[in-house]
């Protein structure tokens, strides 16, 4: 089964220089029919205007992934971790037994656009940990580059998560194929451009801000279909 959630169906807020797009119930947005997809609890896209951001807040027993699309995101928490996250950077916080963390745009002139995703960890109460890596467009060009690994052994990373997250910069006309197992789900999110997804269920057009929620066994084909030359897409394979 493939279900397309369009950009227009996301819940949108704009307050104090922070523009938010929520794909699932989050904060004051409550939809009992749209609370999560597998172990993916939140999939938010934020744009922070200059000098805006989120003050420290407390979370525990979550794995929080930041993926920076534009600008520089400044991250800090009460473990002493501080980092300036630039485009192409993935930062993962396993909150474990609990941590206070904050994300801000320290620039006086440029906005920051990034994704924040929340996952259920494999087990609660772990020690707080961080993982950070940066990937170039060349590394993602016309391939599914694994950003985060899983217990399936496709990539090693400090997080105890049964999932694999991929990224691709797919040029127009280029095609990628993926076989999704019977007991798995896939969340596909287009951050820019336009892709075409083909399977036995049909052909689906997915544009920037749209997501595809895919369940059960599928032989999937992803085709770049943007008039601007390339599209950027995130794929998450999970139970």
Give the topology, please.
Layout: E1 2-5, E2 11-15, E3 18-22, E4 40-48, E5 53-59, E6 63-70, E7 73-77, E8 82-85, E9 89-94, E10 99-104, E11 112-119, E12 129-134, H1 137-140, E13 145-148, E14 164-171, E15 175-180, E16 185-192, E17 194-199, E18 202-207, E19 211-215, E20 218-224, E21 230-238
Structural notes for this entry:
It holds the Pfam family Pirin_C_2. This is Pimeloyl-CoA dehydrogenase. InterPro entries: Pirin, Pirin_N_dom, Quercetinase_C, RmlC-like_jellyroll, RmlC_Cupin_sf. Residues 12-118 form the Pirin N-terminal domain. Residues 162-238 form the Quercetin 2,3-dioxygenase C-terminal cupin domain. The chain has 239 residues and is an all-beta fold. The chain folds into two domains: 9-135, Jelly Rolls, CATH 2.60.120; 138-238, Jelly Rolls (Sandwich). The chain has one helix and 21 strands. A seven-stranded antiparallel β-sheet has the order 2-3-4-11-6-9-12, with no helix packed on it. A hairpin with a 2-residue loop joins β17 and β18. The longest helix has 4 residues, at 137-140. It is globular and about 50 Å long.
């Amino acid at each position: 089964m493939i279900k397309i959630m369009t950009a227009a169906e996301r819940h949108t807020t704009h307050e104090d220089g922070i523009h938010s797009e929520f794909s699932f119930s989050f904060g004051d947005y409550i939809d009992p029919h749209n609370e999560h997809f597998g172990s993916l609890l939140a999939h938010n896209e934020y744009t922070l205007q200059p000098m805006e951001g989120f003050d420290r807040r407390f979370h525990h027993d979550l794995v929080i992934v930041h993926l920076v699309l534009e600008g520089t995101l400044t991250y800090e928490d009460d473990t002493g971790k501080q980092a300036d996250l630039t485009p192409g950077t993935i930062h993962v916080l396993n909150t474990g037994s609990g941590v206070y963390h904050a994300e801000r745009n320290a620039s006086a002139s440029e906005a920051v656009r990034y994704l924040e995703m929340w996952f259920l960890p494999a087990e609660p109460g772990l020690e707080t940990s961080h993982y950070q890596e940066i990937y170039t467009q060349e590394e993602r060009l016309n391939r599914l580059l694994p950003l985060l690994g899983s217990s399936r052994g496709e990539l090693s990373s400090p997080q105890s998560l049964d999932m694999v997250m991929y990224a691709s910069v797919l040029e127009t006309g280029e095609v990628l194929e993926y076989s999704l197992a019977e007991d798995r789900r896939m969340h596909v999110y287009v951050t820019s451009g336009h892709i075409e997804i083909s399977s036995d269920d049909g052909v689906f057009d997915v544009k920037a801000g749209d997501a595809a929620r895919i369940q059960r066994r599928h032989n999937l084909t992803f085709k770049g279909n943007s008039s601007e030359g390339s599209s950027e897409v995130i794929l998450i394979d999970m139970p």
